[in-house]
Design brief:
Layout lengths: L6 H4 L10 H16 L12 H6 L2 H4 L7 H5 L6 H14 L3 H26 L11 H17 L4 H5 L4 H26 L4 H18 L8 H12 L9 H21 L11 H20 L19 H19 L5 H14 L21 H16 L4 H25 L3 H11 L4 H14 L2 H14 L4 H13 L3 H14 L4 H13 L3 H14 L4 H13 L3 H14 L4 H13 L3 H14 L4 H13 L3 H14 L4 H13 L3 H13 L6 H9 L2
Helix pairs in contact: 2-7, 2-8, 6-7, 7-8, 7-10, 8-17, 8-18, 10-11, 12-13, 12-16, 14-15, 15-16, 16-17, 17-18, 19-20, 20-21, 21-22, 22-23, 22-24, 23-24, 24-25, 24-26, 25-26, 26-27, 26-28, 27-28, 28-29, 28-30, 29-30, 30-31, 31-32, 32-33
């Protein structure tokens, strides 16, 4: 390995001995990272952000995270990730800036952890005496800068929900750093309280990584790799005791996982073999995008492979085997190169191996593996040119980092809105139905609705087999009151998937708007039959029963909803109204009390409760509720009229007559005889 020997050459590198090196490195990493992600602070929510954050009631109630049982369910639950989303929500609501600031901070912390990690690796017995300190610190800085500026990292940073990936990676890297620090100190001295503290800190951070995302489960394998490559005892031998410990931890974890849940998988729609051979091509795409990060997309045109013996799969397999064999071959002479190769494949293994995931390829999955590339390319260039051409190194890395920074900043601009993101993807993959579908969902959410229908139609044209495309287009037709078109789409969706409860629910809503109440109830009932634990069809069917006068059936459905969710405001409100209509005023008051407890701003509940109080001749409470309603709706003649009646019965004749006049002024008709009676009492 080459060394940087003379001072003249040293001054031409990024850092010099006269500078406070670590502080300067930290400042460079922070400034560059903040600059290239500064245009993401208002980037919109996308894809999984909606059900994970925007529509997720779990994160909106901080009390959900107080229960210890929640934190125990760490496998496939990602509790710490959701905890951070809850913190964001409770401090910022749905203001995007706070979410993006946290994501950027996590990314910067990952970059700083990489800087420390590289320094620690060069402090291990196998590398410690082979390079100058300045050489090492420059490699650490450039590795960190390549990692934070690489355009492939944008999805893990700018796409809010992928905080799960970047945060798990940060904890992953930090855990290794603390472990390495402890091992180096342990090798230099006997074990002491400080060493134990570092070990315990590493374990704690590892747990946080697991609680952020499942990719952290490869950490014991990486630590075994670090031990094999870089750690030697005083006799220059591998520490087999530590290898045995981590091997036992790894084996125990695998056995526990197999016994409790079996081999993990996200979907049963894809076989393990098909997913594996598809990932051969995916890994090659990742490698290509790492080296040449252009033409980035959210959704790539990639079909599931079902045959290993086709040319592209065989070539992909051959390339991967060659890279792995080179990693094995370079172990003795170039441990860093070998380590970087195996780091890449090990850290990618959870998501690109035999554990089927619905989405075959996603750029954020390369976030942690990309350290292997950043370290490898930095080491190779320094090793090749640092001895004779330090100025060339400077130019090479200036070009790489500036180019990556420009591409990253530009890519972040594409993530600005859902329309800009999906339009960019459509331009790059015009035959991809899923991209049109995603943009259609964005238009359905924010408008205009007619554009969403155009995109849904294009998605259906490209892939007519997806029931969700028909269901969602039908929903858009409903919003435009094109009920016949909506009905046809829901029926088509049901034809493709007869167990699609959402389509039956939507079909029922369509029939309701078409005043076809018999078929409305049939559709809602079918939705309930398919998914009896979903409350919305019960609520919708209850409303329908109330409209057609089947009040007992309506009450039964609203009660079913309340049994599922004791804080469901609409169910209490609707049941209270039915109780009012059927003369069960005390029960109506009880339900409306609950409504106002849940939502004191529900002004209709005040009016309906006032009506119930009026019927039982509790005029004081009726007046109070009419007061509350009129405060928000001063043009409601009916409320003035009934408040006038209440005041009259309490012998407050002047106020009653004033309300009667206001009722008349606001269009409420009553008999002239009433007016005469009130006037006589003045």
């Amino acid at each position: 390995m080459s060394q940087v020997k003379n001072k003249k050459e040293n001054k031409k590198l990024f850092l010099t001995k006269k500078e406070p090196i670590h502080l300067l490195s930290i400042l460079i990493i922070l400034i560059v990272g903040i600059a290239i992600y500064s245009n993401t602070l208002s980037a919109s929510f996308h894809l999984d952000d909606y059900h994970t954050i925007v529509d997720n009631n779990l994160i909106k109630d901080f009390n959900n995270f107080i229960d210890l049982s929640y934190w125990i369910k760490i496998i496939n639950n990602r509790p710490f990730s959701y905890f951070t989303f809850s913190l964001n929500y409770n401090f910022n609501g749905l203001d995007l800036t706070g979410y993006h600031i946290v994501n950027i901070i996590i990314h910067l912390c990952s970059g700083l952890s990489i800087y420390w990690f590289v320094l620690l690796l060069f402090s291990t017995p196998t590398l410690k005496l082979r390079n100058s300190k300045l050489f090492i610190k420059n490699i650490a800085l450039i590795t960190a800068l390549i990692f934070i500026t690489h355009p492939l990292q944008t999805q893990a940073v700018t796409y809010v929900v992928q905080r799960m990936t970047s945060m798990a990676s940060f904890f992953y890297l930090l855990s290794i750093c603390f472990y390495l620090k402890a091992r180096i100190m342990h090798l230099q001295n006997k074990i002491n309280s400080q060493v134990i503290l570092y070990y315990l800190t590493s374990i704690l951070i590892f747990v946080l990584a697991i609680m952020s995302k499942e990719i952290a489960f490869t950490l014991p394998v990486i630590i075994i790799l670090v031990e094999i490559y870089f750690i030697r005892d005083n006799n220059n031998k591998i520490s087999w005791k530590y290898l045995l410990i981590f091997s036992l931890v790894l084996i125990s974890g695998i056995i526990f996982k197999l016994i409790t849940t079996g081999l993990p998988r996200e979907t049963y729609d894809i076989s393990r073999f098909d997913y594996f051979i598809t990932q051969l091509k995916v890994i090659v795409i990742y490698l290509k995008m790492i080296v040449l990060p252009i033409n980035q997309k959210v959704f790539y045109d990639l079909a599931l492979s079902q045959n290993l013996f086709n040319l592209s799969n065989l070539l992909s397999l051959l390339l991967i085997i060659i890279i792995l064999l080179y990693g094995i071959h370079s172990y003795r002479k170039e441990k860093i190169i070998s380590f970087c190769i195996f780091w890449f494949f090990i850290t990618l293994s959870i998501e690109s191996s035999i554990f089927p995931i619905r989405d075959l390829i996603f750029e954020h999955r390369i976030y942690l593996p990309l350290f292997g590339f950043a370290f490898l390319i930095t080491y190779l260039i320094f090793n090749l040119f640092s001895k004779n051409s330090p100025q060339l190194i400077l130019r090479i890395f200036y070009i790489i980092i500036i180019l990556f920074s420009f591409l990253t900043f530009s890519r972040n601009g594409v993530w600005k809105t859902e329309e800009s993101l999906w339009t960019d993807n459509i331009n790059k993959t015009p035959a991809n139905a899923r991209v049109y579908y995603s943009r259609a969902n964005a238009f359905a959410r924010f408008g205009p609705i007619d554009k969403s229908i155009n995109d849904y139609s294009m998605a259906i044209k490209l892939d007519p087999s997806k029931f969700s495309y028909y269901n969602d287009r039908g929903f858009a037709y409903n919003q435009l009151r094109l009920y016949d078109s909506a009905k046809n789409d829901f029926l088509h969706a049901i034809e493709l998937n007869k167990e699609l409860d959402a389509a039956y629910l939507n079909l029922g809503i369509t029939y309701f708007h078409m005043n076809n109440f018999t078929e409305t109830i049939q559709a809602f009932s079918k939705s309930i039959e398919i998914n009896p634990n979903y409350s919305l069809p019960y609520l919708a069917r209850g409303n329908t029963y109330a409209v057609i006068g089947k009040y007992e059936d309506a009450i039964a459905d609203f009660t079913s909803v309340i049994n599922m969710d004791s804080n469901y405001e609409d169910a209490f409100f609707n049941r209270g109204n039915v109780y009012n209509v059927t003369g069960r005023y005390i029960l109506a008051i009880n339900d409306l009390n609950k409504v106002l407890e849940l939502n004191p701003k529900n002004i209709k509940a005040y009016k309906n409760r006032a009506s119930a109080f009026y019927q039982i001749k509790d005029y004081d409470n009726a007046i109070n509720d009419y007061n509350s309603f009129i405060m928000f709706n001063m043009k409601d003649g009916e409320s003035y009229y009934f408040r006038a009646i209440c005041l009259y019965n309490l012998k407050k004749y002047k106020a009653a007559f004033e309300d009667l006049n206001k009722a008349k002024e606001n269009g409420f008709n009553f008999s002239e005889n009433i007016y005469t009676i009130f006037k006589k009492k003045l």
